[in-house]
Amino acid sequence: MKMSDRFRNFMRGRYGVDQLSNGLVFLFFILILIGILTRNTIFTWIALIPMILSYYRMFSKNFSKRYNENRIYTNLMSPVYDLLDKIKGFFNRKIKRFKTRKEYKYFKCPNCKQELRVPRGRGEITVTCPKCKQSFDRKS
């Protein structure tokens, strides 16, 4: 029997990894990093607590209890995840705009401030905002 099969058989019926376990591992790394930077061993010892809890949760056979813990964690962390998604979206839009800067020119609607994209090299054009239907002239 291969080692991967043995591990798969061992994990059968166990809870496994979820968002809370990942959060605990992340907390472990943050505490270890703080301990290294401050040269304080107390953080290293405290960092073992979330790591042990993470392993306990992964190997637990009590699905309902672990599921409820994870549900509470995800409900508490949803504003943080939403904020991170907004930040990620902001940077993705800026990266996309930077990559397409040679093909398109970007304007803001003077009425509703909606960002509009028009092809470059068309000369003087009339741009109509799809959101508020305001028309304005710009050079592309």
Automatic annotation (TrEMBL):
Query: Any stretches that span the bilayer, and where are they?
Result: 20-36, 42-59
**Organism's domain of life?**
Bacteria
Q: Which UniProt keywords apply?
A: Membrane, Transmembrane, Transmembrane helix
UniProt name for this protein: Zn-finger containing protein
